[in-house]
Design a protein that fits this description.
Structural class: mainly alpha
Shape: elongated
Strand content: under 5%
Helix content: over 70%
């Protein structure tokens, strides 16, 4: 796929934002898995939560893991300027990623999504 003459670099910047968002989110997930809470700390942090709320937190972490995969895919596709609609869908998933302090991956994903939306004409399809 060749770059259009006079085209901007917005899709590549958007792809870099998506890839960085996915990597930060993956690093946060790996850090959390490598440093689990002790049973006492877990009991203290979930003492005021119902079982449904704890289950909801586990579901959110699984959604974040799937969103990481879609965000990485969207980043690669945006960098290649391949399929605009699928990149937008992956960009929406990037808003569901969780990082080290919850929001940095989502902010990078939102920035990438805005850049993709602004560069619609730069994509092949």
């Amino acid at each position: 796929m060749t770059r259009r003459s006079g085209g901007s670099r917005l899709p590549q910047v958007a792809g870099a934002c998506f890839i960085l968002a996915a990597l930060v989110s993956m690093a946060g997930s790996l850090w959390a898995a490598a440093n689990p809470l002790s049973p006492e700390d877990l009991a203290n942090q979930t003492a005021n939560l119902t079982a449904g709320e704890v289950a909801f937190l586990y579901v959110c972490s699984l959604v974040s893991i799937w969103a990481q995969i879609f965000t990485l895919l969207g980043g690669i596709m945006a960098y290649q300027r391949s399929n605009w609609r699928l990149v937008v869908v992956c960009g929406v998933f990037s808003l569901l990623t969780l990082g080290f302090v919850l929001v940095e991956s989502s902010i990078l994903g939102a920035l990438g999504l805005l850049l993709v939306l602004a560069s619609r004409r730069e994509f092949v399809s």
